[in-house]
Specification:
The protein has about 180 residues and is mainly alpha-helical. The chain is built from 6 helices and no strands. The radius of gyration is 21 Å and the shape is globular.
């Protein structure tokens, strides 16, 4: 279900529920964190919650699939045969080896967040790089569009480079040379 809901629709539903129905969070406007830290954080809760809920579906699905794949391997059967408890088998053996593909997916998601933030910034009226890109597209300001796309592409490459460099820390099967 989390994978099938578009981010703009999820954002609108969260605004409707938490902002209008319950009245807990502000719906319109924006306050900078520099001007008012508490108010700025209140305005960022709904956009961050929208992004987290949407991307959590991908991460949960990937983590579950890789964990189920690892749980079928022989060394897990051997660990269970040695008498280890199920939680010890999961934490010490299975999750360490199952986290590799999930770590790669986290890198891809972090790279995609900056590219897909234009929709969230437009829905929640937050001034940022995504909103600048959307306004530049409507104004046909090509140098600004190119600069925004360059920043997004560079951030995507840098995030994936950092993920690849940190991969040996999280996956015991990969050896750094």
């Amino acid at each position: 279900m989390l994978l099938s809901i578009p981010t703009f629709w999820l954002g609108l539903l969260l605004m409707l529920f938490f902002g209008l129905k319950l009245g807990w969070l502000p719906v319109l406007g924006y306050v900078s964190i520099r001007d008012n830290p508490t108010g700025g954080l209140l305005y960022l809760i709904l956009p961050v919650m929208t992004l987290v809920i949407h991307e959590a579906g991908v991460l949960i699905r990937m983590a579950r699939a890789s964990t189920l794949e690892v749980l079928r391997l022989d060394y897990i059967t051997h660990a269970r045969a040695k008498g280890l408890s199920e939680s010890a088998v999961l934490w010490r053996h299975a999750l360490k080896n199952a986290f590799g593909p999930t770590w790669t997916m986290i890198g891809l998601i972090l790279g995609n967040l900056l590219g897909g933030i234009a929709v969230i910034e437009t829905v929640f009226t937050i001034p940022g790089l995504g909103r600048l890109m959307v306004e530049s597209i409507f104004a046909r300001d090509y140098p600004v569009i190119q600069a925004c796309l360059l920043v997004v592409a560079l951030s995507y490459v840098l995030v994936n480079l950092v993920v690849d460099l940190l991969y040996p820390l999280f996956d015991p099967r990969v050896v750094a040379e």
